[in-house]
Amino acid sequence: MIRIRPSTAEDMPAITAIYAHFVLHSTATFETEVPSEQEMATRRQDVLTKGLPYLVITQGHAGTQKVMGFAYANWFKPRAAYRFSAENSIYLHHDATGKGLGKLLLAELLTQLERIGIRKVMAVIGGSENLASIGLHRALGFTRAGLIEGAGWKQDRWLDLVLMQRVLGVGASQPPV
Questions:
Q1: Do residues 147 and 162 touch, judged by C-beta distance below 8 A?
Q2: Is 90 exceeded by the pLDDT of residue 61?
């Protein structure tokens, strides 16, 4: 059974472990040192305090649900004019990729963002070779907005940032309510 739900403090060990894998073995994040569980909890609380979603996707049977991934959004930029724009982040357990879980999780995140009035969602994807993330975002209606070449140095090489965007609801066609 697959379930998407708001994250809880009890999910932090699993969330931290999932993220640690990406820090150590991929270019999906430009972080180079694994944050502590406390740091990850602080980051989660920051998102929640802003009224933004921080979700997990679990799989298993009642009572034995395992966290297979997490997704959240944060303000794209901190200034007030950006209050209708968010940047999404999504990470799946390395054993959960290619099973459609990312699509389910990101779709739910987008639904929740639209519900709270977000009009534009940006994805800042680490590494132009990160075809899985680019493909996931494209499958959910994101379009390429740009490329920042050589923006980061990790794994002994320069890495690009792929910028993607998606309109939610009426987007910029009408003023916010």
A1: yes
A2: no
CATH code, 83: 3.40.630.30
Strands (DSSP E) contained in the chain are 2-6, 54-59, 66-75, 85-92, 120-126, 143-154, 157-167
DSSP 129: T
CA separation for the pair 35, 17 (Å, rounded) = 10
| Entry pTM | 0.96
Number of structural domains (the chain) is 1
For 115, the domain range is: 2-173
Residue whose C-alpha is closest to residue 54's, from 66, 38, 43: 43
Cβ(123)–Cβ(137) below 8 Å:
yes
Retrieve residue 95's tokens. 């054993």
CB atoms within 10 A of CB 86: 25
Dihedral sign of CA atoms 14, 75, 119, 139 in order: negative
